[in-house]
Amino acid sequence: MVTPRVDRKDGSLPRRTPLALLLSHIVLPRRAHVLLLHACDLKTARTLLEATAGGSVAAIAPSLAEHTHLLDALKADKGPEVTVVPENLQAEQEGAPFDAAVLDTDGPATRGNVYTVQLIDYALRQLRPGALLWVAGSNDRGVRTFIQHLHEISPEVTNVATGGGGRVARVVRHDRPEIFSSALPPARMVVVGAQGVRFRLQLQAGVFGAKKLDEATGLLLNALRIKPTDRVLDLGCGAGAIGITAALLAPRGHVTLADVNPMAVRLAQVNLDTNLIGNASTVLSDGYSALRGQRFEVIATNPPFHRLGSDDLDVALRFIEEAPGFLRPGGRLYVVANSFLPYEGAIVKAFGDVDTVAATPRYKVLAARLQTGARRKR
Predict the structure, then answer these.
(1) Do the beta carbons of residue 133 and residue 22 sit within 8 Å?
(2) How far apart are CA 230 and CA 226, in angstroms?
(3) Which of 158, 271, 319, 360: CA 20 to 30 A from 75?
(4) pTM of model > 0.70
């Protein structure tokens, strides 16, 4: 068994994070095959490789952006024994069973407790009997809840360390997989109606809006102005409510539903199939990365503005700034946001003007039109 050396001077592993605490305590079998979930950075993968003394690491990336980032880092590092795959909790991970697994719950906790518990159960299903799942997380992001879940499914849970506002625990994967072998819980089905169209929408933990159609998206659905032949982009599609509404309003057009989250793309496709939508397609895309060369009459988005519990406008601003390069002349951008978010300046900079086309005390829908002859940055 090998304990890794953690370089405390390396900025990518701050001294007081729960993940760094885990890496300073973890003990792994030699030549172990390790599953890494939601901590997809090169430093963590290297540290685990050191701990295995000749083993390997399979990293599950929760989004296309993180998948691409780690692959690029591995190429620059001349490829240590690390494989990277997008997340799919409905399929067995290639390479299973693993000798150990590592999960930092801070990232998945932003998608909700139900999703994080699913991730824990998924990790345990990929382990051989007797192998260890190591879990780290911050107290203010629910790690106590997740460790309690470990106690509910296994008698062999050890509290390893506490500090830096978080804690580390490990659990033994026992011989009773039926306790944690359930697939994703039953999806919630809701009926969505806007502008005279109605459809069924399946919601799922791990995808934005897991319990109901959120109020902001509902406001946007009724503010959209879509012509029957429009080509429409639902950017950051989640379960696909915007894209399905657009497809029904543009029966002779086409809608592309794009998201960085593989789980969201799969769910959106399920919802297209459920509603027999034939004029729409899904694509896994980090913003506009998979859409080069395409142009639309309408781009509609409810962009994320949180990252690990804090406001982060970078994604939304990128969606806005790059939008003119993917619109046809006269094309429209629709952005729904919390009323306090300052997107108007970015839209004016990109389009020259902005209109508020719908608003409530909590939310607003901003719209802009690409003027004919406007210079489009790609």
Answers:
(1) no
(2) 7
(3) 319
(4) no
Query: Which domains are seen in the chain, by residue range?
Result: 18-179 (3.40.50.150), 188-369 (3.40.50.150)
Q: Which one, of 259, 263, 356, 359, lies nearest residue 304 by Cα?
A: 259
The number of C-alpha atoms within 13 Å of 103 and in the hemisphere containing its C-beta is: 27
Query: pLDDT of 148-206, one tens digit each?
Result: 888 888 888 999 999 888 999 999 987 765 555 444 455 688 999 999 999 999 998 77
Q: What is the pLDDT of residues 253-300, one digit of tens each?
A: 999 999 988 888 988 999 999 999 999 999 989 899 999 999 999 999
